[in-house]
Structure formats: structure tokens, C-alpha cells
Write a structure and sequence with these properties.
This protein is of the alpha/beta class. It is built from 16 helices and 15 strands. The strands form 5 sheets. The chain has a 4-stranded parallel beta sheet, with helices on both faces. Strands 9-13-14-15 form a 4-stranded mixed beta sheet. A 3-stranded antiparallel beta sheet has the order 10-11-12. 21% of the residues are buried.
């Protein structure tokens, strides 16, 4: 006796993207009718009809996912749908279906508009159909986005009308809602008085009858969004860009700006509030390397090691004492106005001499390059005439090309580096003169800000500030200053005389190497 073969069972799946029937090519009823006719013609067994109203652009449709899980459990082994695009318009869902086919769990797919078989060619064509579906939805999204941008450029609101407006199908724009537009205007007027916060304003306008498009009272965030929307005074803001709208404004621009000022004045800045401290993050402990912090005892303020790495013997330093040391450090980098003028005149004179020397050197190099070119031409003529062999020509040519390249590089360096050193010194002179003006204003915060450009690696050790001058401040703050800024062995302070200082700076300004480096830090 032969065992009867159980017929293949199918799920009938029908889907549409939205509830708007006017935007669907085929409604769910039409899809089911055509699939039923196909099942009747071929004598197929439909286990259950499943319908869904959700876009397939993104994965995550609950009915579709449950259908695939039931297929994995063996409840059915086939799917019937009007077209492959009803099943998948994204790579994830399409890949799941093809994976079920590869595993043998999904044995058949039936469509009135598409023929499918389980061969390699059939799966390839199905994959193409899914890819076409994805291309269609992606292209449609781009076209819709482009249309919305163009609509905004034409002065028409490209989306659903916001609260207080209605969509006008005739003009494809928006018009004020006769009932809600006056309430929107009243909402702006009340907020501009400054007597209402957002919560209180929301309660008032809800009592007046303001509702959203769905007929529900607006939330506080909805009210705030409306107050920040320039659409209400005639400007369309779409995707971060502004366009002049053709719709009728509800309020004036002056009222909108007044509400914006009121909202900014009511805004609360949330964050940590630190005590003002000019050296925050700048000074480290010279013993353990921890960042120095501020400690206030009564009316006195102290700078101390934060001791993040454990106990530290570094003593406290009065902030006034640290300010005095910063001022003393700035004095080592400051120059007077007469000295600055003298340095500028000296730099101009030396720059003119250097420019003249560079011009002479350029002429000499250009002449040598011209000679190299002439020799290359003669060498080529000799090779063409057969006076020299190919090997001799190549060897001589390579030598001349390398020589010409070297001279061209020397010329390029000469063109770019003639005035660089003098410009560095001019800028440094101006900065050093500015340091003098900063010292004269006696503002500790300004001195610290300026000193950050002069020195780096600030450390406190035994209440003494140590630092390393930045480039190109080493031209002014040199190794000799280290000895002059510290107390001598006999207890006296070795101060540099003004004449000696001026001569040292002028001498340093004439060094051939402007990037003079300092190997040790400076202690003030």
C-alpha cells in the first residue's frame, strides 16, 4: 500500500506601505484576489493569509518575521505573494528568504507576476528581483528628497503642515488654520511678555483650545519647537537651510525675535562651576608631577600639589607669589620700545644686505643652470651625429641632469629662505615689545595668557617656578639668562644691565641659526 504524499502548504502574504489607498499601486484586497486565483488554477494549499501595513524599506516587519519563524518550525514550506517586492525591499529580508531556500526549509515561492524555481538560475533571478526592489525604493527616496528640496526653494512648505497651519491641496502649500492660527499668535505674545515659562505657557494655551493635528493637547517640547520655528513669521527652515516662504505669516519677525531673546535669557547653563584660577592645568608639581590645584584659606589663595599619586612634601605657594614670579619671567622676555625700534632698524639693514647677496647668488646659480642646459643640448647633438656612443651619452647626461637638479634645489631654497629668519626675528621683537605692555597693565590673568606663548613645562619646586622657553623665544631668553635669574653663590642677585641686555639681544638676532635651542629649564 502506497503512502499518500502530503500537499505543500503555503502562506499567502500581502503587504502595503501605508493606510492611504491613493498611494498604493495594489491594495491588499487586490493582491489577495490575484494570489487566490493563482492558487485555484494550480491547486495549491494556502495554510493562512497574512497581511501587513508597513514599509519594507527597513527590516523589522513583525508579521513577516513571524512568518519566517513559522516556516523554520515547519508549519509551511512555501510563500505566495503578488510580487517579490511585497516580500523584501532591503538586503536583510531578501537574504533571509534566500537563506531559507538554501537550507531547504522554504521549498517554493509563487507569484502571479514572477516565475521562480529552486535552481541556481532561479535563485539568481530572485536575488535580482530583490535588488531591483531595493533600487526602486532607494531611487524613490532620492526623488522624494529632491522634490522636497525644490519645493522649499520655491517657497512652499515641503512637509505636513505644522501646528496652526493646514495643507492646501490646490496650491500644494500651507494656509493658516482659521481656528488655531490666532492661538499660535497669542502663544507667542504671551511668551514675549516674560511672565510665563514653557510649562505655564503650555497650560494657558491648552485652556485656550490649542491642539495638535491629531486633536491632542501639545506637549511642552511641542510648544518650545513652535516658538523656535521661523515658519510662523514667513521663513522656511528645511535641512538646516533657510528659504523665503510664500505662505501667509502668523506673527511678525519682531515678535519672533523677542521670543528668541526671552528663551535665551531663560536658558540655564548646566555644568561644573570652578573657582577662577589662572593656572588651572598649566603648572605641575616639580616633585611628583601631579597637576597643581587651588586651595583657599580665608582670604588667601594657595597653589599646591593635588597629590593624586599620594603624599607629596612640596609646600604651598601663595598665588600672589606665583604671579610675581610669572611677572619676573616675563621681564626676561620683554624689551623696551627704543630697543625694539633699534632692533627693527638693524633687521631692515641686514635684510637689505642679505637680499642683495641673495640676488647675486641667484644670478650665479641661474647662469650655471643655463650652462648645464647648453651642455645637455650639445651632448644630444653629439649623440645624434654619432660622435659619442649611447653609453657615453647616457653617462654624461645623467651627470648633467643630477648637477642641474642640485642647482635648481639650491635656487629654490634661496628663494624661500632669504627672509624667513628676518621675519621670525621681526615677529619676535613685536611680541617681546607686547610683553612690556602686558607687564605695565599689571593684570595677572593677562600675564599668564601671554606667558603661555613664551614658556612651557611649568613646574613648581620649593615654591620656585621653573619653565622652558618655546621657539623662537630662545633668541631672547638664552642660556646666559639662567645664571642671571638665579641667586649667586654669595647671596647676591646677578641682574643684567640694560646695555648688556640690548647688546646680547642684538648679537643673538644676528646668529646664523635662528632656532637656538635651550637644554635646561629656567628658574625664576
Amino acid at each position: 500500500m502506497f503512502k499518500s504524499i502530503e500537499p505543500l502548504r503555503y502562506f499567502l502574504y500581502a503587504r502595503k506601505s501605508t493606510d492611504d489607498a491613493s498611494r498604493q499601486i495594489r491594495s491588499i484586497g487586490d493582491q489577495i484576489a490575484e494570489v487566490r486565483d493563482l492558487a485555484a488554477r494550480e491547486g495549491l494549499c494556502i495554510l493562512e493569509e497574512l497581511t501587513e501595513k508597513q514599509s519594507a524599506k527597513e527590516p523589522g516587519r513583525p508579521v513577516f518575521n513571524e512568518m519566517l519563524r513559522r516556516i523554520e518550525r515547519g508549519e509551511a514550506a512555501g510563500i505566495m505573494a503578488w510580487n517579490p517586492d511585497r516580500l523584501a525591499r532591503n538586503a536583510v529580508d531578501g537574504g533571509q528568504i534566500i537563506h531559507l531556500i538554501d537550507r531547504g526549509l522554504l521549498k517554493d515561492l509563487k507569484f502571479p507576476t514572477f516565475k521562480f524555481d529552486r535552481s541556481a538560475t532561479g535563485k539568481f533571478m530572485l536575488n535580482i528581483a530583490f535588488s531591483q526592489s531595493k533600487y526602486y525604493i532607494d531611487n524613490l527616496s532620492e526623488n522624494i528628497a529632491r522634490g522636497k528640496r525644490q519645493k522649499a526653494k520655491n517657497g512652499l512648505w515641503p512637509q505636513v503642515a505644522p501646528m496652526g497651519y493646514l495643507n492646501d491641496k490646490a496650491t500644494r502649500g500651507i494656509v493658516p488654520d482659521p481656528r488655531l492660527a490666532p492661538l499660535i499668535k497669542r502663544m507667542f505674545e504671551l511668551y514675549a511678555t516674560g511672565d510665563y515659562g514653557l510649562k505655564e505657557l503650555r497650560e494657558v494655551v491648552v485652556k485656550l483650545g490649542l491642539t495638535t493635528r491629531s486633536g491632542k493637547p501639545p506637549s511642552v517640547s511641542k510648544v518650545q519647537t513652535a516658538l523656535e520655528n521661523p515658519l510662523y513669521y514667513g521663513v522656511i527652515r528645511y535641512k538646516g537651510e533657510y528659504y523665503d516662504g510664500k505662505h501667509t505669516p502668523v506673527i511678525t519677525r519682531e515678535l519672533f525675535e523677542e521670543c528668541r531673546r526671552m528663551m535665551r535669557s531663560r536658558a540655564r547653563v548646566v555644568g561644573y562651576r570652578f573657582k577662577p584660577f589662572n593656572y588651572r592645568g598649566l603648572v605641575r608639581c616639580g616633585r611628583c608631577g601631579c597637576i597643581a590645584t587651588l586651595d583657599q584659606q580665608g582670604k588667601y589663595r594657595y597653589v599646591r600639589c593635588s597629590r593624586k599619586r599620594g603624599p607629596c612634601p612640596e609646600p604651598f605657594t601663595r598665588e600672589e607669589e606665583l604671579n610675581r614670579q610669572v611677572a619676573a619671567a616675563l621681564e626676561t622676555a620683554a624689551i623696551s620700545e627704543p630697543l625694539a625700534k633699534e632692533l627693527h632698524a638693524m633687521l631692515d639693514e641686514r635684510a637689505a644686505c642679505e637680499a642683495e647677496r641673495a640676488a647675486t647668488e641667484r644670478d650665479r646659480i641661474n647662469t650655471e643652470i643655463t650652462i648645464c642646459d647648453q651642455r645637455l643640448r650639445r651632448l644630444l647633438e653629439m649623440s645624434v651625429d654619432g660622435a659619442i656612443s649611447i653609453e657615453e651619452y647616457r653617462e654624461a647626461k645623467n651627470t648633467l641632469v643630477l648637477e642641474r637638479r642640485q642647482k635648481s634645489e639650491s635656487l629654490a631654497k634661496l628663494e624661500g629662505g632669504v627672509t624667513e629668519g628676518f621675519e621670525i626675528r621681526r615677529s619676535l621683537t613685536n611680541s617681546a615689545l607686547e610683553a612690556t605692555y602686558v607687564l605695565q597693565r599689571h593684570d595677572p590673568a593677562e600675564m599668564v595668557r601671554f606667558f603661555k606663548s613664551v614658556g612651557s613645562k611649568w613646574t613648581l619646586r620649593d615654591r620656585r617656578l621653573q619653565w622652558v622657553p618655546r621657539e623662537p623665544w630662545q633668541l631672547i631668553v638664552g642660556q646666559d639668562l639662567v645664571e642671571q635669574s638665579t641667586v649667586g653663590s654669595e647671596g647676591g642677585s646677578a641682574k643684567e644691565k640694560p646695555a648688556e641686555r640690548a647688546e646680547r639681544i642684538k648679537r643673538r638676532g644676528g646668529d646664523s641659526n635662528p632656532r637656538y635651542r635651550l637644554n635646561t629649564s629656567i628658574t625664576v
